[in-house]
Specification:
Elements (H helix, E strand, L loop, with lengths): L12 E3 L12 H6 L5 E8 L2 E11 L10 E7 L2 E5 L3 E4 L4 E4 L5 E16 L8
Parallel strand pairs: 1-2
Antiparallel strand pairs: 2-3, 3-8, 4-7, 4-8, 5-6, 5-8
Length: about 130
C-alpha cells in the first residue's frame, strides 16, 4: 500500500510503503533533516511491525487504534502525548507506548522528529 486507504485523513503527508528493505543502509538523520512538518513514512518492516519516521509540528487529531499498540520515541524536539486523563511529555531519547484501544493525540510545540513502532497494517490516522 503506497498511500493511506480511501477516506482517511489527508491533512498529513503519510505513506505506508517501506522506504528501505532488509540489508539497506538508511541515514535517518539526513532523511528527517530534508523534510518539513507533517511528513510521515515507514522506514522498514521488522517481523510483524513497522518502524516509522515522522517530522511533526502542531497537533495531530484525537484517535485510537483498536488492535495495535503504538510506541513513540523522540529523536529531537518535544512531543506531548495527550491521553483522556493526562499528558505525557517526551524529550529526546525518551519513549512511550500507547496501548491498543486508548484514545490519544500527539502534539509538538516545535519541529519534532519521532520514530514510531507499530504493527504492520495499522492505519496511522486511527481506526
Amino acid at each position: 500500500m503506497d498511500k493511506l486507504p480511501e477516506g482517511t485523513d489527508d491533512r498529513y503527508d503519510i505513506e505506508t510503503r517501506a522506504l528501505y528493505q532488509p540489508l539497506q543502509h538508511m541515514d535517518v538523520g539526513a532523511l528527517a533533516a530534508a523534510q518539513t512538518p507533517w511528513w510521515n513514512r515507514t522506514l522498514c518492516a521488522v517481523n510483524d511491525a513497522v518502524v516509522r519516521l515522522a517530522v511533526i509540528e502542531g497537533e495531530f487529531h484525537w484517535h485510537k487504534h483498536d488492535e495495535e499498540d503504538e510506541f513513540f520515541y523522540v529523536v529531537s524536539g518535544h512531543l506531548d502525548v495527550d491521553l483522556e486523563d493526562r499528558t505525557v511529555g517526551l524529550e529526546p531519547d525518551q519513549g512511550f507506548t500507547v496501548p491498543k484501544g486508548v484514545t490519544h493525540r500527539t502534539r509538538a510545540p516545535v519541529r519534532t522528529v519521532i520514530l514510531m513502532v507499530e504493527k504492520a497494517g495499522v492505519v496511522p490516522t486511527g481506526d
